[in-house]
Sequence to fold (203 residues):
Amino acid sequence: NGKLLFDLRGHNDWITNASYSSDGKWVLTSSIDNSVRIWDATTGKIQKVLEGKEDSIRYAVFSPDTKLIVTASKDNSIKVWQRESGKVLYNWKEHTDWISKVIFSPDGKLVASISLDNTIRIWSIGEGRLKYTLEGHTAGVSDAVFNIDGTRLLSASWDHTARVWNMQTGASLFVLNGHTDILNSVKLSPNGKFILTSSEDNT
Fold:
């Protein structure tokens, strides 16, 4: 019916991203006020505040089991946090330019970070380290998504192409051409058979 349920107030600067946990119980928000806030999706009340000390937080997302949170900051760092304790498990710094997005693989074992430094970096949660650097795009990477079983990663770039990557080897399998301007997003159909891209070439 379009009724407003909650007005989530608590950040003191603009909010960069908001997302639900996979079970729908929590809402996660990130902000340039250097914090991430976890909200109860049923009551709209703040449950926890995770504060970064380095720089504004540009992106945050829950792991599939909601036990972890990964964040990307303006200083090009990536942090993995425990949701309940608020402890930082890992602090990774490898990218040399703006991080567009961070995502978990469907099984929660990998994190992909997408950057305007033309690379995608794949991180192992179990080992706490960089697993692959996916190189091939010749301009910034704007978006990425894992396939259903996490064996492939799809990426979209400002170089006018999309790519399909093998997550067992880190190799580029296919380059998808056709657009004549930068790509802003890439999505996978629910059955995993089709790839959808959007571009500033109006298509």
User: Anything to note?
Assistant: Residues 64 and 108 are 6 Å apart (CA to CA). The chain is about 0% helix and 50% strand. The radius of gyration is 17 Å.
